[in-house]
Amino acid sequence: MMAAMSLAADYPNPYELTALQIAAARAQLVFRSRHRRTLQQRLGDSDALVDQVEHCRMADRKLVDAATWSKVVRLVAEVDPRLRHNLGSRRDPERVGEVLFALQARLMEAVREERRRGLAPVIPLFRTP
């Protein structure tokens, strides 16, 4: 609110002030849209992480490497904080793989729900008896 008051004092013309506010809102929207990842991008990221965890499992490693672990934690926390809590601090490939599969299930459900919301309702041409 304070920023709006200072803008109003600097620009006595209300049209100029409105134009500046609209430009600021558009810039903020562009910034957010560039930094927001879609569900499909997150699903692709989870596929890559599952692949990395599987490589750890195939190499008989006891722990997932730190770089993969940090990516898993970031993605899981981004999608579902409850899954992040379930992930805990255990880095064994079995546990990380289970959480990633649960994450993928939630992402696929969200993608399906998003597609369903995008469909327009069907309007029948003829009355049904």
Encode the helix/strand succession as letters.
Answer: HHHHHH
Low-confidence stretches: none
- Please give the alpha-carbon distance between the first and last residues: 58 Å
Average per-residue pLDDT, rounded, comes to 84
Residues in helix, %: over 70%
Structural class: mainly alpha
Largest sheet: none
Globally, the shape reads flat
Binned strand content: under 5%
- SS summary, helix count: 6
Oligomer: single chain
Radius of gyration: 23 Å
Number of strands: 0
General description of the model:
With 129 residues, this protein is an all-alpha fold. The model has no long low-confidence stretch (mean pLDDT 84). The relative contact order is 0.10. The protein is built from six helices and no strands. The longest helix is centred in the last third of the chain and has 26 residues, at 93-118. It is flat and about 70 Å long. It has helices at 2-10, 14-35, 39-58, 66-79, 81-87, 93-118. It has a domain at 39-117. 76% of the residues lie in helices and 0% in strands.
